[in-house]
């Protein structure tokens, strides 16, 4: 028996309302009236009224703003008209599938494919300035949602809503999107150095210098501080090395907002989630145990990434000895003891790092990884701690042996003598070769 094809329309029919259709008004109650008439000597009319409660359908409170809390509500409905009007003034482009084919060389796997994740495939593309008036020529990354992947429509929508309405130098820039028929595509600025995970852990790659690591940590911290300090705080929930993108100058930008959530409202201390989402090794322990999500959950995840930058090791790796499988559990006792700092520092740095800066960073990582969320620093405090590290100049120089003047003169004489001997040997060899070629003094001939 053939299985029925899964379509976006069958899953989210409200997203496929035709253009120009009007949203129904919000309904809370509905009255039905029945009238019974009984005729006697006097005519008496009795009216019975029944009130039926109808579930409230949630609609966007404003055509200019869609909240992530709205799409988390199972009764939330909207049309793509609502979607487009919510981004008025954001300069987001709405691409067609045909335009994306042109940009991505028809989604070429051989020449344009970058990678694939839970969201779907990612392709590199190039927007020619002739494609659309006013849109500058630029390289882009095109992320195509896989209907059968681990992330779905709501994750795509969450990313679109957050990056469509939030702008910051340390958030990846969303250029546009496509929601034509069943296609769900997001188009971003292209980040030429990929993500931090690849740069830090890729085999045979050059080790990132200390200051570059601190620059990345500071940029990522500024991105999180911006999200946490927004009018309505945003909790990224899946902060990890693979979601920190790097441009050609190693400027860090946060990406992947599919699991992001609005922070708690009013006096609430946390957001309660039904499902624990995130990446193993990066997720805060209290979130795993209780399902309670706060901005401190992101701070813990930042501490894990900071530890990866210090050690050059992944947060989870079963290839390592058993006690080192979980990087945090292995390193936590070492972080608070400055005398053991060398034990955790990435050996590939070969000692080329600021000792004072490393001490500050290890203690900061220890604070971020505290079991008690209330003991962790805010991301704005993290930024203030990291900023001075960029100015520290106590990084040792590479070892260079300087030859003393006396030894230098003697060495020069030795080189000169070896050169003269080599030249003399060459002259004697040429003379012998000439005599042998002419038969003079060659073997078998006497004088």
Main sheet summary: 6 strands, mixed
Q: Which percent band covers the strand fraction? A: 15-25%
Uncertain parts: 1-65, 442-447
Helix/strand-derived category reads alpha+beta
Query: Strand arrangement, largest sheet?
Result: 3-7-8-6-5-4
CATH architecture of the largest domain: Orthogonal Bundle
How are helices and strands ordered from N to C? Answer: HEEHHEHEEEHEEHHEEEEEHEHHHHHH
Mean pLDDT metric: 79
The coarse silhouette is globular
Oligomer: single chain
Helix content: 25-40%
* Strand segment count: 14
Radius of gyration: 34 Å
CATH fold title of the largest domain: Transferase(Phosphotransferase), domain 1
In CATH terms, the superfamily of the largest domain is: Transferase(Phosphotransferase) domain 1
Top CATH class of the largest domain: Mainly Alpha
Catalytic activity: L-threonyl-[protein] + ATP = O-phospho-L-threonyl-[protein] + ADP + H(+); L-seryl-[protein] + ATP = O-phospho-L-seryl-[protein] + ADP + H(+)
Pfam family, one: PK_Tyr_Ser-Thr
Main location: membrane
Subcellular location: Cell membrane
Structural overview:
The protein has 447 residues and is an alpha+beta fold. The chain has 3 domains: 56-190, Phosphorylase Kinase, domain 1, CATH 3.30.200.20; 192-400, Transferase(Phosphotransferase) domain 1 (Transferase(Phosphotransferase), domain 1, Orthogonal Bundle), CATH 1.10.510.10; 403-440. The chain has 14 helices and 14 strands. The strands form 5 sheets. The protein has a 6-stranded mixed β-sheet with strand order 3-7-8-6-5-4, sandwiched between helices. It has a two-stranded antiparallel ribbon with strand order 1-2. A hairpin with a 6-residue loop joins strand 7 (174-178) and strand 8. Mean pLDDT is 79; it is low at 1-65 and 442-447. This is non-specific serine/threonine protein kinase.
